[in-house]
Amino acid sequence: MKNLRKASAFSLFVFLSVAAVGCTGQADPAGETTTGASPTTGSASPESAPKTSDIFEAQASVLKNGSPSSEIRQQVAGAGTTSFDVEPMPPGYSHLGVAVQCSGTGKWSASLDGVGGKEVSSDCSLNGGAAGLFDISDPAASQTVTVKVADGTDIWVTIFADSPDEADK
Fold first, then answer.
1. What phi and psi values does residue 102 have, to the nearest 5 degrees?
2. What pTM, to 2 d.p., does this model score?
3. Which contiguous run of DSSP H or E holds residue 71?
4. How many angstroms separate the CA atoms of 36 and 59, rounded?
5. Most buried pick, 3, 27, 37, 99, via CB within 10 A?
6. Secondary structure (DSSP) of 76-119
7. What is the distance between the alpha carbons of residues 108 and 126, in angstroms, rounded to a whole number?
8. Which helix (H) or strand (E) holds 53?
């Protein structure tokens, strides 16, 4: 993740060390979400679903280790396709990232309204994750991120800001 490269509208990078989350007993429906619904363990059995707090801690750790300038904006757990309103970017930031983990064997995709239909996608996984990085043309404007998954699929999403200097390395 140290070698994030800027693409015209987004770049995709894969978490390399989120596998440490693993299976830790029962799901934590109360979770540590900042907004949105709690996961329902839709397609993940309670025995195999990691705790929400473990996933969010692992996502934050990977982001900080790979891109020290990244700033977490929100961490949200829920089920099914969900849209998130994101506050304007902090001064000096012009990239919005979306890190996703999800239950089941399907795929997820994330899109950012107003970025010309660009989206990022990957396979669902509880033992790893992937993220997409979008260029933001107007960092002072609020954004809406939509994460699409199959109905009943649990999702854990970390939305973060990143600076152009880090994304260009």
1. -150, 155
2. 0.71
3. strand 71-79
4. 18
5. 99
6. EEEESSEEEEEPPPPTT--EEEEEEEESSSSEEEEEETTSTT-E
7. 12
8. helix 52-66
Q: Tell me the pLDDT of the chain (169 aa) as tens digits.
A: 332 333 322 233 333 223 333 322 223 323 333 333 344 444 445 555 578 999 999 999 988 888 888 999 999 999 999 999 999 999 999 999 999 999 988 999 999 886 666 889 999 998 877 888 998 888 899 999 999 999 999 999 999 999 865 444 4
Output the six-digit token pair for 23.
Answer: 């299976």
60: burial class by Cβ within 10 Å (0-12, 13-18, 19+)? middle
Q: Quick count: other Cβ atoms within 10 Å of Cβ 138? A: 11
Q: Which one, of 148, 156, 147, lies nearest residue 44 by Cα?
A: 156
For residue 126 the two structure tokens come to 């509880």
Please state, in angstroms and rounded to a whole number, the distance separating the CA atoms of residues 118 and 95.
14
Q: Which of 117, 123, 17 is nearest to 61 (CA)?
A: 17
| Residue 134 neighbours by CB distance under 10 Å | 25
User: What's the CA gap between 81 and 46, in Å, rounded?
Assistant: 20
Separation of alpha carbons 17 and 115, rounded Å: 29
pLDDT of residue 117: 66
Amino acid at 164: P
Q: Residue 18 carries which DSSP code?
A: G
